[in-house]
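Exercise 7. Predict the joint structure of the components listed below.
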Amino acid sequence: MDHDSALFENLVSELRRGTLILSVLALLREPQYGYSLVSGLESHGISIEAGTLYPLLRRLEKQGLLDSEWDVDQSRPRRYYVLNDSGKKILALLSAEWRRMTQAIEVMIQTGG
Amino acid sequence: MDHDSALFENLVSELRRGTLILSVLALLREPQYGYSLVSGLESHGISIEAGTLYPLLRRLEKQGLLDSEWDVDQSRPRRYYVLNDSGKKILALLSAEWRRMTQAIEVMIQTGG
DNA sequence: TAAATATACTATGCGTCATACACTATTGTC
DNA sequence: GACAATAGTGTATGACGCATAGTATATTTA
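Solution:
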């Protein structure tokens, strides 16, 4: 990997940053376990490592946006995560702010200011 | 400021992160000095502190995406920054990736997966 | 039986933003 | 003439985040 593409990859990482939370919150309106979240995001073209996701889930739960519980009734134990009311509220606010930002940026990309 | 809005502000900060670079690069297709960048971003609804912008400009220059020079012919010295060829290339790539990401996220926000 | 997939998780380093801080020149107002 | 507001550039540091690398096991498939 040459310098330019390394730099590009780094900038893309930074773009992904922050939006990751929004993506995860959006998917967590329905209960999901970690592995299904990784697959779900991947299927939407958003790649994330498990080692990145789990600490994020811990943090979101600590911040009181989601709840989690183990399901041990299936072939294998899975820990399910889902938004609670607070999380749903934040998701709505964040989505609105996201759209506002994307529109502003789109204008700048197109016109240059 | 209560807990919820503090949390929300924090998440918005994270959203802004990364997109800041894209915004700055977009505006720097035309030469700008620091203060004009802050005003320009502000007029698009993207707020940024000068203390955040200048280190970012240093970094982008160090990464070889932009050039800068002092203009001392005006009433007051100003340092102008502008994208170079490498920066323009990166901006084009990054814009494309940005649009791809926003579309993916929009789908997730709307459908939940 | 071997390999691939499914599944969960932690620790730590590196990089980035935000805040606080420091400084000067010009313009406008009373 | 004095004072405030605006214009303008920058640095240092702390808090916090992702990414990488690593660990571990169960189930399915070949």
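Discussion. Chain B touches chain A at residues 4, 7-8, 11-12, 14-19, 21-23, 26-27, 29-30, 40, 44-46, 63-65, 86, 89-90, 93-95, 97-98, 100-102, 104-105, 107-109, 112-113 (CB under 8 Å).
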